[in-house]
Amino acid sequence: MGTKEINISIKELETELGQIKDLRMSVGRLAQETWDEPQGPTPFPSLTTLRNWDLTLLNRYRPFYLPLCDLCCLCTYGKCDLTGDRKGACGISMPGQQSRIVLLAACIGAATHMNHAREMVTHLVHTYGDEKKLDPGGLSIKVEAPITRLVCGMKPETLGDLEAVLDYAEQQIGALLACTHTGQEGNPLDLESKVFHTGMIDHLSMEVADIAQVSAYDLPKADPDAPLVEIGYGSIDTTKPVILVIGHNVVPSVGIMDYMQDHDLTGELEVAGICCTGIDMTRYSARAKIVGPISWQIRYIRSGIPDIIVVDEQCIRTDVFDEARVQQIPVIATSEKNCLGLPDRTGDPVDDIIDEFTRGTLEGALILDPEKVGEIAVRTATINAPKKRKKKKAKLTLKEGMEEAKKCTQCRECRRACPNDLHIPDALKLFARGDSAMLAGVYDACVGCIRCEQACSEDIDIHSLITLTAEERLEHESYKLRSGRGAIQDIEIRQVGGPIVLGEIPGIVAFVGCANYPSGGEDLAEMAMEFANRRFIICTSGCAAMTIGMYRDADGKSPYELYPGNFEAGGIVNVGSCVSNSHIAGAAIKIASIFARRNLRGNYEEIADYVHNRVGAVGVAWGAMSQKAAAIAAGFWRLGIPVIVGPHGTKYRRMLLGRADRDEDWYVTDARTNERIYVGPVPEHLFISVETKEEAMVMIAKLSMRPNDTSRGRALKLTHYIDLHRRLLGSMPADIHRFVRMEADIPITMKEDIVAILKEKDWKETVIPDPTLIRKKEVVS
Amino acid sequence: MNQESWLTAEVPGPKKASLITKPEIADAMIRRASRPVFVVGSIASEIDLEEKKLIDYVIRLARQFQIRVIATGSTNTAFLARDFTPDAVMPAVDAGFRLADPAWQGVDGNGPHDLAIFVGLPYQMGFTILSGLKHFAPSLKTISLDNVYQPNARWSFSNISIKNWIINLEAIIGNKEEE
Lengths: 781, 179
Ligand code: SF4
Ligand code: SF4
Ligand code: SF4
Hints:
Oligomer: heterodimer
Number of strands of chain A: 21
Distance between the termini of chain A: 25 Å
Largest interface: A-B, 49 and 44 residues
Number of helices of chain A: 31
Helix content of chain B: 25-40%
Bound molecules: iron/sulfur cluster
Number of strands of chain B: 9
Structural class of chain B: alpha/beta
């Protein structure tokens, strides 16, 4: 079935892109010649191949829709009012409409990763040739691409092989997007199944992007000792020319760093990144630095420090050019997906562009050649830096800031525009009177969106005043981050596979996603360290990984200096940028294949069933805001891995919630006996938004339980759950009886209390099955 | 005052909350309900209402009207510190999801709740969860007792001052006391 589909995709691609390739043969060749694992049932799954698995999960974790708006305005039949049980002119209901929007968001996210991967692979094939061998982990990794093996049933060996994977991904995303058209899929559960499919394709695309860049650019290869690099506003040496890079696709930044290397300029300039390009630059060269996550864009541009700004793709403020212009910082756009309205100067002589940039006659340019970008950025910054230092505008003084604050009329429009409802007017009132402490406090929870400024009728540069009062702290923002290590080694999986599956390592917690935090980033570092201390394995990536690093203990050490980078109990493992998230899913998948020796190849359902029932992994996207984060979460859902989001996460419009009180939802089949066994609500939810970090921590501990836990493992997990519940929520949890299967599950230190509760709840002992949600055919019939 | 969301971008409608223009409205709704339940978010223990916190009013209301209480976020700790034990501790979305199920027998197992009173949740969380209930729990009545307009509740205060808020809450409590 899968092979047939890839043939179809090839024909379409031939007409659209003019590429002539017989991929069917290529895939067939690979499969036969180099991999003797038998092909599983679902290589290259279509939109409906895994629908039964999805519906199994969705039957337990039901959608709870939270419409942001009563209307649908997607087509000119509408707007349609879908309040209550009304239907739109096309017949769609509110649940259908909400899941359609969720699908749209997931498609946007997955398309973004997929196209990022495509651009990366096309560029690398062009540079290194399609026969360039993939090597994401040297001798430490045999399962080089677990998601690709699982989903596509193929074992990619060269960069060229990855193109076949992307052909499939592109075809699927096209089809998934088509489902959202008016008068197409309208059944909410079918739409949700397609959301899961989108998530799976997203993970596949991320894997392709990351193993391509790791292999070709020689980024750290599954290296737990990836270098400690510098992060923070204050870590950048402003006496040197500063190139600021923003975005997610490292190719143009590699152009910059290569040019510096080739011209003996390494160390002469600072190359500083915001967002994932920052992380990936440090994977390429440990001398590169990171300013911070996405929310640092405005404050760093407004500092006037950068001598040139280079943007690539994704999560870049679309007003970056406007902001840069005010500071007279030239901007280079480097991606066809993000041209910023700038003139295309790709074909012009480098010297001309540099001349115009340095004379100030050109404010920005689109340059679609990464090598040219490298030369222009470096030379322009070098020439501009001394001039800029000379004529540097005197910064706003605190006194001037206070004068500015006096303009405030206390209308509160800023606060009403602020996504975190920050008390800006009160803080400004105090600041105007000379007390800056409250405004500096606003800095901690400010996500740098400048919605407040947009709302202010007095045109107060509120965000600039906030950073002004926090200036001293900003300048001390200098921390260490362990650069992205890439994949998890096979040997690490072998070592922890048993303890994880048996529950003796209490879980894997993945802190991922964007920086839209409800009350500042320190919560994230605190959570990561809490669970590392509890001997969970902590994985992280992207903006979340940066935020964890932007914390110092009393001795001035960051979490990456305090905890090892190994995939082991108590490790804090930064896998890398957003696309490196694939290694976290990959690790869960590899536990099934390397530790449990389940066949991986084209065998999605069995592996997902394994992961869901046995691998206590939990994703936490505390500041998730993007569509990519939605797609990444969806990829985890299809593997049955629960995801927790912060309070802003309800704006994703739907949760996937279990009902602990409905016993009938929590039965599995015992693979040994075919009996149906009650296992309790483990894991209780698949997608849940929580309100506070305390609630998040309790939820992480709770969602790490799995039906397969041994008694020792369950006792350990219960200890963490109960302990955190008591400490952070103030009481014993009321649902302990649902998680104790037999007396041996009871943590010894809490025995008396728990036995009393069990008695009260009329608890009955049960058994630990060999759990599966896949019911054998004969059982069904 | 008008029906304008507190956070300006959270544009409501067409179906939006009626205004609680005087305390008697909320009072009557609570009194008429046979199985009311409070959903109390974490901000309830942070907001100052002069010398008291919002949560103190919640406790008085809950005691006087015998309203069941769900503590969301980490509000449980603040309740316990005031010698008040909530009937349930659960995430706000979980509470919302259950309230949308007409078969749910409530926090005490004694039957479905007919009125949910929301207070102290982060604004957008209240907005989205109340929206879920507005659309998918047609037989459940909802009130927001925050001092900001929550358009997706059935009834809500407008954006009112702390002072006005205290007067309203005291009046609701007072009405009951007079009975
Ligand atoms: S897609 Fe359907 S519900 Fe939406 S506006 Fe068009 S007809 Fe109305
Ligand atoms: S920039 Fe900061 S203070 Fe201003 S609206 Fe955004 S989060 Fe609020
Ligand atoms: S919007 Fe402007 S004038 Fe109004 S309170 Fe905020 S800072 Fe003051």
